[in-house]
Prior knowledge:
Layout (H helix, E strand, L loop, with lengths): L9 H15 L12 H45 L6 H6 L1 H23 L2 H13 L7 H18 L3 H5 L15 H14 L2 H20 L8 H14 L3 H14 L6 H13 L3 H12 L9 H6 L7 H5 L12
Amino acid sequence: MSGEMGRLSGTGWAVVCWMLLAVMSGHTRIVVAEVFTAMDDIQALLGDERKVVGVLKDLVKAEKQKMEFIEKYIDDFSSLFDQPEVNSDKVVAHPVNAFLLVKHLSSDWQRVRHLLMTNLGVIGVEQVEHLRGSSNLLGEEDMKGAVEAIVRLQHTYSIDEESVANGRMTRTSVTSPKLTTLDCYLLGLNQAQLGFHDYAIRWLEVSLKRFEEDERNNQPLFVSKANILDWLQHSTYHRGNVSHALAVSEQIKSIDPDFANVQANIGFYQQVLSEMTPEAVAAVEKADSLRPKLAGDGKYESLCRGEGVLVILTVNYLKTEYDKSDCK
């Protein structure tokens, strides 16, 4: 596996340790108490985020009330003074209607003006940043740590991407929501940046599949197909399948001719292919089409998956020890 984990922040390591332990605990007899130090960081983050979510709920409620008042301001005028079949002069001649018009143009407008000039979003951001001021904000390295934890779980327990994306992890009763197109894309993107191109390709393919499902069902799209394909061609090239990387790049160009670097990538791949023999290209394509299922093949990984056979006397002497030195 990559050496990137050595550069993770303390919080990133906490996420990695917690995710690994959550699954591995199904195979351990003894877990030392210090193992829960990583959980302390997670619980602190959850506590802070609950407060943040509370602020956002209040913000959404206030925004709804703001828009409801503005809509009422519009509807009140339209229903009384802006009906095509009504003579507006006669309507205004009524003393009560005249009062309502003056109220609409004065006090009601002042309130609407105040609401329009009040930026609730800025207020919400200030409150959130104040709440998070005392905690360690998560960053790019923490994201990579969480992504690498999923890679390690897949590698160790031979879990396919569709299972993870659908919230089905092995040997745990805890479930997770189904991952969205954007979630799968971010996993693939970060895995590509970490150099896990085999996993990146698989996750980006899942993301592409879900994108097409969302498109057919007229669901909101939070990432473009071209962006998904762009990282797919990137990892495909790094795996050595230049011809497929070229085909993906040409697909990007057909979707968005002005997509960044697409023409340069096509030219580069065409140049590389021109320097390869047809036999070499065919061999790479064949090898890529027969990609094996990714899983650790060591004794440790086999035992974690329950594939190893141990005599009872040996099992009785086994224990799990946890080295917390890197999780701080």
